[in-house]
């Protein structure tokens, strides 16, 4: 009983993530990769992603704290982040990255 | 994981349409990406495609993996942006050293980046996020490459291999977009059919044309005569007037040569000092190769990275061409690279980095350097330098080759050094000097070996009875390259192969020791020289190197040598049956030369290269069956290595009954004892 309910919850949450544009088709691809051999594949990947991106974000924050923003470095970080995000299908994050990079290119520190 | 009877052999030898039923399952893929998320996802996708996957997140690890298992992988997928090494550089290295198809990928889909991938020789360019459908079709690149190699070997195809390759590239390019669309495959198929029809022999398998040193020299002469811009295969063919050589052979060789030159010019710009730059840049390694002579060390140092570069540099220096920059910077640090000319392209001389590694870029070098090397080798007799450089170059090749080179150099150096360098063990190194370039394993050690090894290290080379210390080829220390500068510097009289400072510090120290160290190379070279008496007079080369400078001098020497070598190598590279191998050797020589301004070095370098190249070539041919080195050397990718090993072998043979000395590096058989003391 509970399991079914939990499952339903999970499905709903998942669907909402898609609807809100947090996730895109790539995520579905990931899900397709999961099979009996690796039942927790998606989970592993996402965990890995979180860990890696947390590290990236720390770096970004550090870079942002400086008075003179090093846009090149930030751009590099963003590129990395964007790559990761797109790999797992984090659509929104990817979009934000792109936006961030635009700002970097324009030298827009405020953005 | 799946190894369903996927065998390359069947693939390549099969007719254009015939591939094993299970193919592409079992395709062995190497994935390189610093992004762990992406890496894991790719791995999973590839597994689903039934491929065998190996993943690594650092380019150096990837390179070492590739070098250790020469035929262990069928295709490489690499990210463009990586913290430790530029993806394109890696691409070049792999192309040169191992000649494997490489796919680039990135979240960046800007046209200029994609274009960069194409020009650096990538088979394909994928945009992240990677879809599994895109991965399903990567096997086509492997097939295509094999086919092209095959066709290239066969001379009967009328259409130049260039055309085919170009078509393939076109197909490749669009393939990523279409993911192996029907159109692409159809087009390719048509081309294949055309080619097949034109094939008189009706077998794709044709005897591979070996661009021997002489042949290559002829080729270069013809090209120079016509002018590099106006050199067309048809005219070159006529000028060369070699029976049995087809226009297509010339065409593909010309293509490689052009790339090599381009690389050289790039490298020369890159390296201001030549000597130092070699080492520093991996690419330089390529160049360094050429500088085997003195520069080899340098290149070796850097070499491992850029064997091709060094060659290029050398060549450029030697040839005075500012062709394309060798992409491969010679990272001195990259000992492995330095020594290993891995760049397959560089094979010729470049050995530095990978020596042979620089595959794509150096392709030109491949053919050329190798030839050069032998020639150089021949000339080298004078200068131990050449030995050093050769060694260096050879070393750069990759460890396996390096060892050979080292051995060779050792042998040579031994002989020479023994005479001259009282000191040391170093002489041994000189033989190894060539090796320095052989990055493979040798990388650090190589350099050291060449010059240094002798001096005292004695390590690396092991079996070299000469004690020439083949300098620990395995010395992974980047310093090794300096060592390569071998011995040149070591012996005052010694051809100043002086290890370039560039080379790993470690080596330098070593080299310094053996003043006479370098000398040995001389001896060896002289021995080698007689093998191939190429015109080049090493006399200059050897001498000028007077190593005392050790670190720097070697560099310069190497540079000169490399250039000379490169030059020589070019022609000589042909000689080797392995063609590739030799080229590698030849190339390194070039690279070496580039770096330095030393005029002397140049002259020396050349002879050395020739000498070296020749020797290498000779060695190879002779020893082919013997040394296991050969196997290592002859890795397709490492022309240089082989060359070196060949040289070494020769040396060994010459020296004494050539007992294959077991080098640490993989040289199986060269017993340094051969080097007459």
Automatic annotation (TrEMBL), chain A:
SUPFAM superfamilies: Histidine-containing phosphotransfer domain, HPT domain (SSF47226). Residues 38-111 form the HPt domain. GO terms for molecular function: histidine phosphotransfer kinase activity; protein histidine kinase binding. Gene3D superfamilies: HPT domain. It is found in: Cytoplasm, Cytosol; Nucleus. InterPro entries: AHP1-5/YPD1, HPT_dom_sf, Sig_transdc_His_kin_Hpt_dom. GO terms for biological process: cytokinin-activated signaling pathway; phosphorelay signal transduction system. Signal peptide: none annotated. Keywords: Acetylation, Cytokinin signaling pathway, Cytoplasm, Nucleus, Phosphoprotein, Two-component regulatory system. GO terms for cellular component: cytosol; nucleus. The modification Phosphohistidine is found at residue 79. PROSITE patterns: HPT (PS50894). PANTHER family: HISTIDINE-CONTAINING PHOSPHOTRANSFER PROTEIN 4, PHOSPHORELAY INTERMEDIATE PROTEIN YPD1. Histidine-containing phosphotransfer domain (HPt) contains an active histidine that mediates the phosphotransfer. Functions as a two-component phosphorelay mediators between cytokinin sensor histidine kinases and response regulators (B-type ARRs). Plays an important role in propagating cytokinin signal transduction. This is Histidine-containing phosphotransfer protein.
TrEMBL record, chain B:
The modification 4-aspartylphosphate is found at residue 79. Residues 160-169 have a biased composition (Basic and acidic residues). The keyword Transcription applies. GO terms for cellular component: nucleus. InterPro entries: ARR-like, CheY-like_superfamily, Homeodomain-like_sf, Myb_dom, Myb_dom_plants, Response_reg_B-typ_pln, SANT/Myb, Sig_transdc_resp-reg_receiver. Gene3D superfamilies: 3.40.50.2300, Homeodomain-like. Its main location: nucleus. It is found in: Nucleus. Residues 205-262 form the HTH myb-type domain. It comes from the Eukaryota. Keywords: Activator, Cytokinin signaling pathway, DNA-binding, Nucleus, Phosphoprotein, Transcription, Transcription regulation, Two-component regulatory system. Residues 173-183 have a biased composition (Polar residues). It holds the Pfam family Myb_DNA-binding. Belongs to the ARR family. Type-B subfamily. Transcriptional activator that binds specific DNA sequence. This is Two-component response regulator. It comes from Salix viminalis. The lineage of its organism: Eukaryota, Viridiplantae, Streptophyta, Embryophyta, Tracheophyta.
């Amino acid at each position: 009983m509970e399991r079914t309910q939990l499952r339903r919850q999970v499905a709903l949450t998942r669907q909402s993530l898609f609807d809100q544009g947090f996730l895109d088709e790539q995520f579905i691809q990931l899900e397709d990769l999961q099979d009996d051999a690796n039942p927790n594949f998606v989970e592993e990947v996402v965990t890995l992603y979180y860990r890696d991106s947390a590290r990236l974000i720390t770096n970004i924050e550090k870079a942002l704290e400086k008075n003179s923003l090093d846009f090149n470095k930030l751009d590099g970080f963003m590129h990395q982040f964007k790559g990761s995000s797109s790999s797992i299908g984090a659509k929104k994050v990817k979009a934000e990255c792109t936006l961030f990079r635009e700002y970097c290119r324009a030298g827009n520190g405020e953005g | 994981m799946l190894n369903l009877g996927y065998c390359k052999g069947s693939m390549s030898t099969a007719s254009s349409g015939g591939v094993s039923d299970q193919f592409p399952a079992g395709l062995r893929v190497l994935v390189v990406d610093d992004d762990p998320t992406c890496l894991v996802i790719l791995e999973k996708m590839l597994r689903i495609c039934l491929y065998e996957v190996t993943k690594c997140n650092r380019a150096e690890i990837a390179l070492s993996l590739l070098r250790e298992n020469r035929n262990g992988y069928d295709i490489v997928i690499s990210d463009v942006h990586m913290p430790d090494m530029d993806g394109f550089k890696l691409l070049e290295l792999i192309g040169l050293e191992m000649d494997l198809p490489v796919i680039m990928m990135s979240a960046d889909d800007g046209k200029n980046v994609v274009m960069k991938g194409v020009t650096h020789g990538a088979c394909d360019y994928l945009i992240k996020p990677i879809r599994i459908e895109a991965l399903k079709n990567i096997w086509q690149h492997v097939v295509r490459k094999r086919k092209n190699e095959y066709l290239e070997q066969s001379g009967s195809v009328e259409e130049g291999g260039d055309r085919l390759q170009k078509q393939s590239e076109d197909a490749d390019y669009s393939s990523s977009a279409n993911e192996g669309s029907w159109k692409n495959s159809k087009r390719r198929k048509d081309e294949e059919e055309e080619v097949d029809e034109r094939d008189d022999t009706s077998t794709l398998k044709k005897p591979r044309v070996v661009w021997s040193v002489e042949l290559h020299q002829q080729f270069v002469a013809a090209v120079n005569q016509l002018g590099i811009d106006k050199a067309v295969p048809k005219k070159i063919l006529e000028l060369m007037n070699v029976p049995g050589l087809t226009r297509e052979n010339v065409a593909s060789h010309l293509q490689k040569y052009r790339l090599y030159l381009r690389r050289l010019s790039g490298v020369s710009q890159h390296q201001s000092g030549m000597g130092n730059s070699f080492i520093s840049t991996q690419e330089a390694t390529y160049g360094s190769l050429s500088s085997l002579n003195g520069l080899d060390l340098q290149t070796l140092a850097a070499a491992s990275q850029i064997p091709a570069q060094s060659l290029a540099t050398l060549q450029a220096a030697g040839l005075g061409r500012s062709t394309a920059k060798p992409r491969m910077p010679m990272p001195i640090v990259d000992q492995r690279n330095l020594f290993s000319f891995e760049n397959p392209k560089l094979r010729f001389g470049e050995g530095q980095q990978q020596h042979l590694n620089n595959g794509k870029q150096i392709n030109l070098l491949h053919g050329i350097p190798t030839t050069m090397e032998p020639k150089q080798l021949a000339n080298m007799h004078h200068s131990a330098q050449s030995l050093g450089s050769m060694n260096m170059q050879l070393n750069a090749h990759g460890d396996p080759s390096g060892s050979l080179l080292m051995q060779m150099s050792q042998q040579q150096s031994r002989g020479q050094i023994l005479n001259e360098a009282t000191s040391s063990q170093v002489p041994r190194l000189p033989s190894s000097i060539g090796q320095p370039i052989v990055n493979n394993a040798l990388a650090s050690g190589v350099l050291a070996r060449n010059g240094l090894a002798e001096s005292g290290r004695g390590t690396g080379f092991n079996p070299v009875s000469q004690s020439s210390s083949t300098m620990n080829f395995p010395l992974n220390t980047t310093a090794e390259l300096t060592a390569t500068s071998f011995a040149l510097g070591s012996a005052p009289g010694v051809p100043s192969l002086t290890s370039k400072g560039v080379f790993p510090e470690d080596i330098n120290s070593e080299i310094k020791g053996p003043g006479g160290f370098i000398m040995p190379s001389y001896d060896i070279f002289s021995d080698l020289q007689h093998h191939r008496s190429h015109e080049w007079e090493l006399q200059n080369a050897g001498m000028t190197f007077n190593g005392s400078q050790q670190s720097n001098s070697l560099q310069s020497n190497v540079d000169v040598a490399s250039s000379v070598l490169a030059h020589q190598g070019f022609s000589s590279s042909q000689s080797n049956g392995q063609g590739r191998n030799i080229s590698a050797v030849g190339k390194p020589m070039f690279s070496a030369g580039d770096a330095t301004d030393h005029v002397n070095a140049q002259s020396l370098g050349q002879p050395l290269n020739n000498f070296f190249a020749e020797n290498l070539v000779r060695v190879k041919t002779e020893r082919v069956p013997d040394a296991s080195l050969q196997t290592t050397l002859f890795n397709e990718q490492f022309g240089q290595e082989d060359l070196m090993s060949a040289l070494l072998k020769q040396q060994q043979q010459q020296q004494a009954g050539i007992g294959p000395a077991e080098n640490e590096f993989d040289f199986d058989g060269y017993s340094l004892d051969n080097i007459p003391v």
